[in-house]
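Appendix B, example 12.
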Amino acid sequence: MTTQEEIYKTEGDKYEALIAREDYQGNILKSLKEITPLEDRLVLDLGAGTGRLACMLAPHVTGVRAFDVSEEMLRVCREKLVKSGLSNWRVEIADHRKLPVSDQSANLAVSGWSVSYLAVWNPDTWKRELENWLAEMKRVLKPGSPIVLFESFGTGNESPVRLEHLKDFYPWLDEVGFRNKWIRTDYMFESLAEADELSRFFFGDELANQVGQKKWTILPECTGVWWLNI
């Protein structure tokens, strides 16, 4: 099976086909608006991928700068933002821990299903990587600005589950002061065949087999939302 890391490098269009089915009820934007006003925000989107959050936020904020380490993901993100007709955005390759951003130049940072990879992909140095990321946030954001993170609480679950591969990440967020809640971000597919194909592509055979057994064209998903004013 292709790893998620490989998918991010090479499969932008198919990944976008999956993401376009996620959160059909619109809970991501709703939760952001509940946490902080979006007006007059200069937003940094970290690990922007194919532009899920950047495209969602661009119509509501002053400006968005979308960052990712994958040019393939950003290719799709850029195409979507161009099609939006908006001009208040920039798309750039950058690591979470070293952004090409001036000190205290933004007033909102968001990241969807991305910051946790600093822990997952760096098992020996995970805490230092996260601390470096948080220090970078304190550099680039104006004092008092919010950080909002979305991370997985289980795809295929109707209630939240703390995932084993994020066992270090969840308590670290608590330790540094993030508050959190959870929302549903269910996928709605056009057919059972599409649900099988796209869930198998990204999540693997075990979940895809569950989709087939339960005949899910709506795939339940729980997502944690963490936020902190720095």
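The first helix runs from residue 4 to 10. The chain has a mean pLDDT of 97.
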